[in-house]
Amino acid sequence: MPDEALLLELLNSAPMVDGVPIDELRGSGAGDWLREHGIPGPPAAAREVRDAVAAVVRGQVPARSLQKFLVDVRQVPAISVDGVAWRVEGARFPARAVLAWAEVQARLRPCENHEECTLFLIDRSKANARRWCSMSTCGNRLKARRHQGRLHD
Ligand SMILES: [Zn+2]
């Protein structure tokens, strides 16, 4: 799985289900969830980076709060007749998630159905104007609610 997709799965591991917040990274299923996604444990470490990136994406804390996950990452130059090629070293899991965030941050945002949904989306469209994790769920629900609101005005 590409790191961006993995990051999205990680961010979306704390959904709301019928109005109840669920956390896949807590409880007995957490180890299985991490193994299925190829993320080394422990769950607490995965939760820490997930919650840190989520807070940045929601605009609650500045991006520099993610710096601590990158302390072991460095670029190493390898010189050849073609010039210098830079290789990233030390980007293991928490760092990989943060680097993936850096790649997609302009297209990664929370679903606009804030009241009922805690999911995130990566918008690949040219317009980059997608607002809902899923049109069929959150998009339709919000449209219906706004429509009802207008009727009662
Ligand atoms: Zn949603």
TrEMBL record:
<dbReference type="Pfam" id="PF11706">
    <property type="entry name" value="zf-CGNR"/>
</dbReference>
<dbReference type="InterPro" id="IPR021005">
    <property type="entry name" value="Znf_CGNR"/>
</dbReference>
<protein>
    <submittedName>
        <fullName>CGNR zinc finger domain-containing protein</fullName>
    </submittedName>
</protein>
<feature type="domain" description="Zinc finger CGNR">
    <location>
        <begin position="107"/>
        <end position="150"/>
    </location>
</feature>
<dbReference type="InterPro" id="IPR010852">
    <property type="entry name" value="ABATE"/>
</dbReference>
<dbReference type="InterPro" id="IPR023286">
    <property type="entry name" value="ABATE_dom_sf"/>
</dbReference>
